[in-house]
Amino acid sequence: MATKRAGGGVTGPHQAAKFVGVSVLAGAVLAGLALPAVGTLGLAAKGTVEGFDEIPANLKRPPLSQRTTILDSQGGEIAKVYSRDRTVVDLKDISPYMRKAIVAIEDARFYKHGAIDLKGVLRALNRNAQSGEVSEGASTLTQQYVKNVFVEEAKDDRNKVAQATQQTIGRKIKELKYAIQVEEKLGKKQILENYLNITFFGQQAYGVEAAAQRYFSKPAKDLTLEESALLAGIVQSPSRYDPVNDKEEARKRRNDVLDRMAAHHDITRAKAREAKRKPIKLDVSRPQNGCITAVKGAGFFCDYVREVFLSDPAFGKTRKVRAKRWNQGGMTIRTTLDPKAQESVEQSVKRHVNKSDKVATAVAIVEPGTGRILGMGQSRPYGFGKNQTQINLSVDRDMGGGAGYQPGSTFKPVIAAAALDRGTSPYKKYRSPYRMQYPSPVTTCKGRWKGKAPVENENRTEKGPYRMKEATAKSVNTYFVELISDTGICPVTDMAKSMGIERADGKKLDQVPSISLGTQEMSPLTMAEGYATFANRGVHCTPVAIKSIKDAQGKKLRVPRTTCKRAMKTKTADTVNSLLRGVVEDGTGKKAGLSGRDSAGKTGTTDERYAAWFVGYTPNMSGAVWVGDPAHQTRMVNITIGGKPYSKVFGGEVPGPIWRDAMQNSLRGKPSPDFHHVPIKDVDKDKKKGKKKNKKRDRDRSGSGGNDREDDLEDQKPDDPWPDVTLPPDVIGGGTGGQDNGGNTSGGNGGNGGNASGGWPNGDSSGGWPSGGNGNGNGGWGDDGGSGGGWDVGGSWP
């Protein structure tokens, strides 16, 4: 047995064999290199046995770069991403014709020699000497494989690629040593399989599987004889024998391969002649690389998946490592994208907004209870040309989006939720004038906000008093300014955070009362996520885009999961659902209503009409639609959108119908459950009806006409929640306390000494009632702050 030398080499017969190998290599080099003279071989260092030993013992074979495939939730392909388009397959999944063709043309004696073909070397030396130039090489298929490993390791580094392919003695010696090692370790079948998977076949196709798909749109196992011969012929010079650009050159080369196969008895002469007569028939699949090629407008969702992958340390220690894995890892990523929902989003966007319009739209749909992103799209396509963009208008800046857009009145339900969760009654009444100053001071998380600024409603006719239901349906600004003043800003920002509603630029929400009008920029995905919390009865689930990932070997990788956490009381969410149903039934969002389904939502239009929104949901889907100018330069006044002129754009005018069409088709065939409602009586409307009846009755009795004017300000006190209970006047809001601004109740139930934060005080007895605990809040709301299920006197709504 041979023994190790101190330098790591081997003595005995192996040393002699190695010397012979190096000597033969000199001939191989001469056969394959054009050199001016034998004396220039320069074998002094690397050409000797000692130089041979200095080469590292093991060939590093990095994992082959493969394409990653991104799928929708049903297994349909969204896109492929790769630095090199390659899919590694087993030898059994490669056509036998292909295996024979590549051996016949590249190394006919492959199964008869070792790492180096001595006969081939001598033959090449003879022919090159006769021709006076290098007309034939002597590299075996194994040596070619080793060279390709060097090229693969170099990736896109031009200097390393040049070193891996340069015609030098040193590289040839290195190539030979590793070829010997590969022959010993792998065996012929594995070498052939590796070679067919690593070799470049032109047209950006690496490996035979990608080549078969590129030229013939079929898997490698289905390649015919003539197709196999064509691909085998390309390998020597992919640009010269490219059948897409030069069919005649490719045909000649294919026929040479067929003749070689016949000469080596892989096929009969007759079969070769028959195949040579056939014309080249291609079915080319053009390279489809990256999210820009995604189907059904899913390029931005694809890009979002990429950002999720690149930002998660579970997929690699650094972003650079993760990016390499994304482009080269050969993964199969199944996403949450619902193909039906995505197509619905795409069609609705195209129907309502043109890509060349001055403004754009973006849509995001998520599933309540799971956080799965079901659809994502926008009117400006993914790309680099005119009317295209690479900015995902649906997501936050750190996920490939922009700085976001002011959500306007779509933020008001967050204020309502914060107030309701702290015990405020949905019957809370405010004066709500057309114009007013922001109340000051207002409590914040760190103290108080003080300042002066005017705020007004959309129309002069919008003046109160209003209760929460009507104020929400009509989107009354001054009502919510008064509500946040009583509730405080901190509970509102805390509620927003617990619902997943945060600024698109990653900054914290500013502690200012103007937040009540949605003045801080957010993304459609964030708003859809937040409203899904209402649909899920108060439980917020973080959004997810990936269902599963398998690596190139089929091993499942850990993927980010949704995290669900209660953001508000169940009854709070149910009450908000009842409030927002009114928006689509008889409010600003009537045009967004879904037929045959229980739905809720809120419109939003920002100051100066730079943005308009509709955010709505059913129990099983939540969607947000934004329309506006991403650059915040174009006001939506006297503007044409989707070929239709608008004097003014409202949230219910353009975003609402986009949402309706996208959701209606997305939900087709799915269950249509109802919300868990908390009944909220429309007290003021009922009063008006009663007054009309009374006046009509009086007219009928007197026989006179009378005045049919509706005076909804006649009774400015809240209705008595319990008619059978005698209440002290200061609790109802009369007497000497609880009046403000000319007698209109600004503090709801509670006198001057009561807790005026809305509804009954949470155990605060200063308003006249003794301290009480939390009551049983099951059931609907009473006429004025009382819960239909027994809201305890003096207790807060639980």
TrEMBL record:
<dbReference type="InterPro" id="IPR023346">
    <property type="entry name" value="Lysozyme-like_dom_sf"/>
</dbReference>
<dbReference type="Pfam" id="PF00912">
    <property type="entry name" value="Transgly"/>
</dbReference>
<feature type="compositionally biased region" description="Basic and acidic residues">
    <location>
        <begin position="671"/>
        <end position="687"/>
    </location>
</feature>
<dbReference type="InterPro" id="IPR050396">
    <property type="entry name" value="Glycosyltr_51/Transpeptidase"/>
</dbReference>
<dbReference type="GO" id="GO:0009002">
    <property type="term" value="F:serine-type D-Ala-D-Ala carboxypeptidase activity"/>
</dbReference>
<keyword id="KW-0645">Protease</keyword>
<keyword id="KW-0511">Multifunctional enzyme</keyword>
<comment type="similarity">
    <text>In the N-terminal section; belongs to the glycosyltransferase 51 family.</text>
</comment>
<dbReference type="InterPro" id="IPR036950">
    <property type="entry name" value="PBP_transglycosylase"/>
</dbReference>
<feature type="domain" description="Penicillin-binding protein transpeptidase">
    <location>
        <begin position="362"/>
        <end position="627"/>
    </location>
</feature>
<dbReference type="GO" id="GO:0030288">
    <property type="term" value="C:outer membrane-bounded periplasmic space"/>
</dbReference>
<dbReference type="GO" id="GO:0006508">
    <property type="term" value="P:proteolysis"/>
</dbReference>
<dbReference type="InterPro" id="IPR001264">
    <property type="entry name" value="Glyco_trans_51"/>
</dbReference>
<dbReference type="GO" id="GO:0008360">
    <property type="term" value="P:regulation of cell shape"/>
</dbReference>
<dbReference type="GO" id="GO:0071555">
    <property type="term" value="P:cell wall organization"/>
</dbReference>
<dbReference type="GO" id="GO:0009252">
    <property type="term" value="P:peptidoglycan biosynthetic process"/>
</dbReference>
<keyword id="KW-0808">Transferase</keyword>
<feature type="region of interest" description="Disordered">
    <location>
        <begin position="663"/>
        <end position="798"/>
    </location>
</feature>
<keyword id="KW-0573">Peptidoglycan synthesis</keyword>
<dbReference type="InterPro" id="IPR001460">
    <property type="entry name" value="PCN-bd_Tpept"/>
</dbReference>
<dbReference type="GO" id="GO:0008955">
    <property type="term" value="F:peptidoglycan glycosyltransferase activity"/>
</dbReference>
<keyword id="KW-0961">Cell wall biogenesis/degradation</keyword>
<comment type="similarity">
    <text>In the C-terminal section; belongs to the transpeptidase family.</text>
</comment>
<keyword id="KW-0378">Hydrolase</keyword>
<dbReference type="GO" id="GO:0008658">
    <property type="term" value="F:penicillin binding"/>
</dbReference>
<dbReference type="InterPro" id="IPR012338">
    <property type="entry name" value="Beta-lactam/transpept-like"/>
</dbReference>
<feature type="compositionally biased region" description="Gly residues">
    <location>
        <begin position="732"/>
        <end position="798"/>
    </location>
</feature>
<keyword id="KW-0133">Cell shape</keyword>
<dbReference type="Pfam" id="PF00905">
    <property type="entry name" value="Transpeptidase"/>
</dbReference>
<protein>
    <submittedName>
        <fullName>Penicillin-binding protein</fullName>
    </submittedName>
</protein>
<keyword id="KW-0121">Carboxypeptidase</keyword>
<keyword id="KW-0328">Glycosyltransferase</keyword>
<feature type="domain" description="Glycosyl transferase family 51">
    <location>
        <begin position="77"/>
        <end position="261"/>
    </location>
</feature>
